[in-house]
Design brief:
The longest helix is centred in the C-terminal third of the chain and has 38 residues, at about 140-180. The chain has helices at about 5-35, 130-140, 140-180; strands at about 35-40, 55-60, 70-75, 85-95, 100-105, 120-130. It folds into two domains: about 35-140, Ribbon (Umud Fragment, subunit A), CATH 2.10.109; about 140-175. It is built from three helices and six strands.
């Protein structure tokens, strides 16, 4: 293989590996270390902060630590699986001293109609990764294991191919140098 093509292949391989490692760090490793959970943004209510298809990394937070301006993810109703991610635009004190939160999507003209109580809060958005929510949604718990195994097999196969190609090239160079 000519040297420019070999160099281009090496550079592209390194870039692909760096991208894969970066995505894995941002979407798997760092959230696990933080005790965070990934949520896929499904609507445009948080544009331009988060577009649909973004992956919001949501870390646990105490209700007392939430301030105006924070972006939180909360259940539509306590105990229900459906969640919304919106910005806190107001904090109220309910009877008995419990705080409630007024939220609003960045793209919405008005605050949400219902106040959020602490029992609904899943956490605060630490950061988001554009477009990765699509992959998260596609890889549900059933397909995630299969995809991880297939990815690992593909990476191992690629590594074997790279090493094998180098061994073959060395043998050819040695054979060519031995011929008078």
């Amino acid at each position: 293989m000519p040297k420019p093509l070999r160099l281009a292949g090496t550079v592209l391989s390194a870039a692909a590996l760096a991208l894969a490692v970066g995505i894995a760090l941002a979407t798997i490793v760092i959230p696990k270390v933080m005790g965070a959970a990934p949520y896929t943004v499904l609507t445009g209510s948080m544009r331009p902060t988060m577009d649909p298809g973004a992956l919001a990394i949501v870390r646990p937070v105490e209700a007392a630590d939430i301030s105006i301006g924070d972006v939180i993810t909360y259940q539509l109703a306590p105990g229900e699986p459906e969640v919304v991610t919106h910005r806190v635009v107001g904090i109220n004190a309910a009877s008995g001293g419990e705080r409630t939160f007024v939220t609003q999507g960045d793209a919405n003209l008005r605050p949400d109609s219902e106040a959020v109580v602490p029992a609904q809060i899943r956490g605060e958005v630490a950061y988001s990764v554009p477009l990765m929510g699509h992959a998260n949604s596609a890889l549900n718990s059933d397909t995630r294991s299969t995809a991880l195994v297939m990815g690992a097999v593909a990476l191992i196969g690629y590594g074997v191919w790279q090493v094998g190609s180098e061994v073959v090239m060395r043998r050819r160079r040695t054979a060519a140098a031995a011929v008078p």
